[in-house]
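Hey, I'm writing a tutorial for new members on how sequence and structure tokens pair up, and I'd like a real worked example in the thread rather than a made-up one. If someone can provide the structure for the chain below, I'll link this post from the tutorial.
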Amino acid sequence: MKKNCSTKSGRAFALVLAAGASAAILGGCGATTESIVDKMFDEEVESSANEVEYDLGVKLDSDGMSMEFGLSGDGEYEFAKDGDDVVLHMIMDAKLNVPEMVSSFLDSDSVSAEIYGETSDDETVVYASTDDGDTWIKTTQEVEDSVIDDDKKEDIIKAYKKVLYEAELQKKLEDVDGDKCYVLKLETTGDKFSELYDIVFDAMEEETDESIDDILDEADMSRDDLYELMEYVKLDITMYASKKTGQCVRCDVDASETDLGALVSEALKMSGEDLDDLPFELEDLKFTAFSFSITSKDINNTEVEIPDDVIDEAVERGFGGGAVAVPADPDDPDVAVDPDDPDVAVDPDEPSDPDDLSNYDGLNSDGSFTFPYNDGNDYVTVFPYGDYELDKTMSDGYSAYFYDDDYNYYYVQDYCDYAIEKYILEGNSQVNDSYEDFVCDYEAVDGLAIDGNKVYVVDASYTYVWSDGDKTDSSYKAILIAYHDDTWDEDTFLQISLDSMDGSENFTLDDMANIANSILAK
């Protein structure tokens, strides 16, 4: 008869899964990736209203039989801070997906719960009700001061940023509940968060009698073993950052590509288990789903109160667990950049779907490229300069690249450096603390306009300050076409970057004006 695996690995394996899930949560939540991420942490989120969706599914095929287990649902939570005081309201609905042999023992395959919570001074009070909402249970727990002080918080933020800096800024802005957003996509693995985990684990050890290392040691494992296992946790993270406020208004995380069988197999091997004792093959253990999404609104503009009838009717009970944690809230990013500009008299075939321009072919017979803007509703034509030629493989409805034989190039895109945009439109040279020694010279090109909109040439420089204090000198030479985006009711620019052209370091404003006339005024 097959024997069960020993229980000594149970706590460690639970820790592995919890760490994997937390890595997914951590992933979620400048016109460059770095400046957007930095903006996320410029201001603490004091309140917000959030919608949550989640889906977790596991499937096991063994000896011709298939079993699936799952948990999915949605909900909403809102919270508000006032100093150290926090008030929370949460409503969650969940549906279980279990084999019939298990569901027959359950009263229902779904559950609903509503919770109010309040942390103040040295205690947390929670009011909870399930399903009907007619009965409220009150529990109270004393709360000790957290050992995660401001210095540790700063260390956590730095470690978090290092991972998020690897995200890729998408070419197209997207709408989230009417908010125009930059989109950051990150494909990573759970072990990339190991530096952050170390900080949190060490802080937890100061608060509890038992450390993470003690728990792992019981299963003959170490932190290094844990992080090696976390390499199996595959994370596909998409963050949506409001261009207007810089705040993260939505985060989607999908970890369903995680090789669950390999993860469990390796964990058991590290714990000294004999895989031959298992009643099934671990390679048959797979995730069918492992995803969640958080959408936030009314950030720093949400009020939460516990209704008087909930307080008055609640029945006091003992608290069975630890202090209630305030949900991790999405942070914020901002840096500007944005859609494009006007058109020239041309007669291109408009893309059939303005929301999908990746296969757009704007190549004209004279070697020029007709570039769409305003979500593909309008167009501007850009011509080759000198010996530069359009690279067809690098050009679509989101960007267009012109190369010479030595791989120097200039390109068109529907983004503009946020600091430059704010400076020209608002005269603001202090966009945030990440920009030092900001210098920007610009002028309108005389006699050149696109659909009546001004064309500017810009020569700028600044020092970008990274979160760890490192500094990078940046230069910026570009042609900007001004226009008003009616969809978003704002002024913005289409950018033609000249930084990578031959001799660009010596370009004057007059040089760039001549280039502008050459590539736009045909």
